[in-house]
## 1
Amino acid sequence: MNYEKSIKAFAEAQKHIPGGVNSPARSFKSVGGDPLFFARAKGSKVRDIDGNEFIDYVGSWGPMILGHSHPKVVEAIQKTAESGASFGAPTLVETEMAEQIKKMVPSIDTVRMVNSGTEATMSALRLARGYTQRDLVIKFEGCYHGHNDSFLIEAGSGALTLGVPNTPGVTKGTARDTLTAKFNDLSSVENLFKQHKNEIAAVIVEPVTGNMGVIQPQKAFIEGLRKLCDENKTVLIFDEVMTGFRLAKGGAQEILGITPDLTTFGKIIGGGLPVGAYGGKQEIMDMLAPAGPVYQAGTLSGNPLAMAAGLTTLRLLDETENFYEELEKSSAYLEEGLKNNLKELNLNGVINRVGSMLTLFFTDAEKVQSFADVNTCDTGLFGRYFKTALDKGVYFAPSQFEACFVSAAHSKADLEKTVEVSYQALKALK
Ligand code: PMP
């Protein structure tokens, strides 16, 4: 494939935008080469400015569960735009959105809309601190909760990919208030609770991880977190920015059968527009201004365009018969195909999949269940695999430490082609 225009565009962008991109994860830094500049997308496909077309498994990093430019979502945005893009005053659609979220996620009593996943987790942590009147938070190595100072400690996603899990610019004081534990290792959490009795405001976790690749929590681990938080009067926050409305109508908490105190959302909830949200127990949420003293605000929060895109998306997910069953079938087909490829080529690798989130780890390990397991991966091999797949028309996330997202728009033909391309890309590694 010819990427001439993208290469030129990236050279130009680097003169005006730091690193040439507005978010590091979309650079191709870890896989080598220049990022592609996209021009348009429809259904399962994205097209770059050179006119190359790819089957897309990034889906804007998660939001596009219905596929790109779904006609109903496009229509909702267009219609809304005609009535005004923003008022900074209450609108009816915000209440409808809150009702729809509550219907799909029963742990939500009330919910506050914000503009990104980062805002959602930042605000949820402030609220948990205000509610408990404690300072400390426990997060897990390799989990990513957006770019708030408090969470850029042993962070996953782009921070991990680019080798800056602890970023400069976070004060020592802030870093001191963030404790890190090991995912799927309950004793590491128990120890922190013992060392910091009555000091821990919140435990925040990606209930199924995506930002160090896909890892499922062991039952005893996730149940143990709930129990420890109950015993210590600590707020359990599920960061479902990625998993919310993706793994099931009710997100990861539905499939795991665990009720968090607060949940954060993003991505799908905005249908491709910039949105986040956080919600949960009434008693905690009532602490928020103007009902209570914990301040949090936003000029564009509950923005009509974003609400229209998000609400249309959520309603389609809620009302389309067997939506998640069909998505599961497509995703299972892809997993099976990739597994067969590894077997046929006699290559090592681990495929973790939960619903429509999947990661192929290039490792000799038997299983990937922890951040330590993730770190056994050969990122060089991944990079070569990624590039060959790209050249053959399949766009996976440009990092070993991310999930691939299957959407409802991926057809049988798309999935078959992906399995074939993956076979070729794996074969090229030998
Ligand atoms: N939490 C999780 C679990 C995420 O995956 C992300 C984004 N990848 C965020 C928070 C941050 O969301 P945003 O990029 O919208 O700020």
Note: Residues 323-344 form the longest helix (22 residues).
## 2
Amino acid sequence: NSSEAINTDIVTLPRFILESQQQFKQARGNLTLLLNALQFAFKFISQTIRKAELVNLINLHNSSITINATGDVQKKLDIISDEIFLNAMKSCGVVKILVSEEQEDLIVFQGNNINDQTYAVCCDPIDGSSNLDAGVAVGTIVSIFKIDPNVKDLKQNVLRSGNDMVAACYAMYGASTHLFLTFGQGVDGFTLDNNLGEFILTQPNLRIPQQRSIYSINEGNTFNWDPKISKFIDLLKNPQSEMNNNCVPYSARYIGSMVADVHRTFLYGGLFSYPCDKKNKNGKLRLLYEAFPMAFLVEQAGGKAVNDFGERIMDLKPKHIHDKSSIWLGSTEEINKFLTYIA
Ligand code: AHG
Ligand code: MN
Ligand code: MN
Ligand code: MN
């Protein structure tokens, strides 16, 4: 029986969306259109990154340097991926507002009917771009809000609490391309099958481990941290401290792509942090398209996400579209250790 060897009834992302849409009576198919455009953008960016070196898209000898609104140097792939993402959102017809790390201001798409343009989308087209030239895993991070047609000032549709997100996801372009997605009812993980060109459901209802002795932080910033933070990290490394139930020091793992560090944290557990420091007074990671979507996903998988002061990331509200925040996220027990420590 040949059907024993392979699964002939796989759940593709379009099938998954259709089946979960049928559960919501008010669904009008707009979310399906948005998800279709998102997955196209992820596939396109994935392919572009994978052939970058062969078509001279990596930045080793780039002459012209441009800087984005948050002070980052833009690489060629940052700009191309931003364009890919923008065009996908523009053409799907259901997005009214787009915020991108690589665009100083928000972008408003003109449509025929505001009731069709249901969504505001915020994105980090390439997360981890400092790793691009070395072929290390990078990703795309997205948060999704619903437009309120009664709100006159369009910007207010994204300057809201993280609790207002209706969906969030990220794609990670690693050895395989992965997609982790939430609509606020748990997290589901998909893997891109390059031959089929489809994202396949591989990790339904993903749960983050409750505990794991791994910390993920740029420790090179120690001398710029508040001494309280350095002391907390020292406690994790000390096998005799009250933080170490097993009397083994924590392992350090830091890739420098938030997407990849959070992805590992999802699967193995542990904690990931980018705290405030002397250089980054409000942290480095941006609320709308880095901290919010990751916090939503982590909480939906049973973990926690807070800032340096122990406030829930999801409860924060940006004043400007590129506002930043400190962040601590990961396994519930690990984040609880931090919360107990700062209390
Ligand atoms: P981006 O590449 O989108 O600008 O994001 C970079 C972020 C994030 O991916 C990562 O966690 C962090 O910057 C790494 O910063 P350091 O190099 O300062 O550790
Ligand atoms: Mn950047
Ligand atoms: Mn980023
Ligand atoms: Mn980026």
Note: The two ends are 61 Å apart (CA to CA).
